[in-house]
Amino acid sequence: MKEFFFVINPKSANGSTAQYWPRIKEMLQDEKYDFDYQLTSAPNQADEIAMEAIRKGYEKIVAVGGDGTVNEVVNGFFLDDGSLVNPKAKLGIISRGTGCDFIRTMGIPKDVKYAIRALKSGKAKPSDVIEGEYISQQGQKIIRRCINISDVGLGGFVVRRVNHTTKSSGGFLSYLLGTLLSVLKCPTFDLEIILDNKLFFSGEVYLAAVANGKYLGGGMKLAPEAILDDGLLDLVLVKAMTKPRLLWNLRKVYSGTHLSHPKIAADKCKTVTVRSLNGDMPLEMDGETGSVKSINYKLNKEKIEVICE
Ligand SMILES: Nc1ncnc2c1ncn2[C@@H]1O[C@H](COP(=O)(O)OP(=O)(O)OP(=O)(O)O)[C@@H](O)[C@H]1O
User: Fold this and answer.
1) Considering the entire predicted model, what is its pTM?
2) 4-129: what fold?
């Protein structure tokens, strides 16, 4: 059995990974890596590919793509009941996305050459995994896991917009522009937020985020106090305020200095329920979007080991 299995999303980084993968493969061969690999041929396939590789016995599964690919591969590590397919399996990341937000908190190099070297370090750190449970628009109960951040409201609005652009100006600018335009259009949402079974807030908000990592949107430090393996969820609420005020305060989110703002609330907890009091709200989980009326968050019962420097 080879040491590594790479799952590559050729469509990531604006489609450029398709051309760049042969170069990565060459670098891996030069560094004498022992590996097999598979490219995805459609969306939402990376989780199945990762799970099959783990079942075959590979213990180092490396996602090559953006936050969406990392999300899918993470989902491939877990059975429906939240237990690991193989507790010895570890996640590696070669980031080829535009957002690249999870690796910022984990400290995985963005530069492919260094990311490849980090895979050899043999070091790994545990990360919590967020579990979101909701009813799909088709009426099915869905359990989806995410490793970085999930949010309802403005975040889903932004990601939907950005995912429909080419993202050719890079993550920072694409998400900044997407956020500015979305703020102008996005309404507030009348929500009820329940933390550890107690009502935390009820009223109009732009965004309710549940975080494990600190960053989203190509470098916005939305949850500066989030710690990857503390066994807690970080809730960040952006309550209703005027749009000029929201735009003005956006700069503070990049430096993570927004938590003291009177219209921001943040807390740590074990479980969060976000319930809309008027219709569906946009949902985002690690950059993948949907639409829900209510969602329950908790931490998955098992952590995932992530290979890092
Ligand atoms: N072969 C494929 N063809 C079309 N889409 C794919 C394929 N493989 C994966 N996808 C989809 O591509 C989307 C984007 O992937 P990903 O998020 O990894 O890249 P990105 O958008 O460039 O990065 P980021 O989310 O960090 O900005 C995901 O929704 C994924 O399901």
Assistant:
1) 0.94
2) Rossmann fold (3.40.50)
Among protein residues, the one with the nearest Cα to ligand 1's atom 2 is 42
Q: What is the pLDDT of residues 97-121, one digit of tens each?
A: 888 899 999 999 999 999 999 998 8
The CATH 3.40.50.10330 portion of the chain extends over 4-129
Q: Among 1.10.10.10, 2.60.200.40, 3.40.50.720, 3.40.1400.10, name the CATH number for the domain at 130-300.
A: 2.60.200.40
pLDDT of amino acid 99: 80
Confidence at residue 14, expressed as pLDDT on a 0 to 100 scale: 86
Complex ipTM, two decimals? Answer: 0.96
CA of 131 to the centre of ligand 1 (A): 21
Q: Pick the atom of ligand 1 nearest to 65's CA.
A: 18
Pocket residues for ligand 1 (CB within 6 Å)? 9-13, 40-44, 65-69, 97-100, 171, 287-288
d(CA 148, CA 286): 6
Alpha-carbon distance of 152 to 294, in angstroms, equals 10
Residue 169 has pLDDT above 70, yes or no: no
Q: How far is the CA of 265 from the centre of ligand 1 (A)?
A: 32
For a pLDDT cut of 90, what percent of the chain falls above it? 82
Ligand 1 mutation target, pool 69, 93, 220, 288, most atoms within 8 A of CB: 69
Neighbours of 243 (CB within 10 A): 12
- What sign results for the dihedral spanned by CA atoms 70, 297, 136, 78? positive
Token pair in block for residue 248: 């003005």
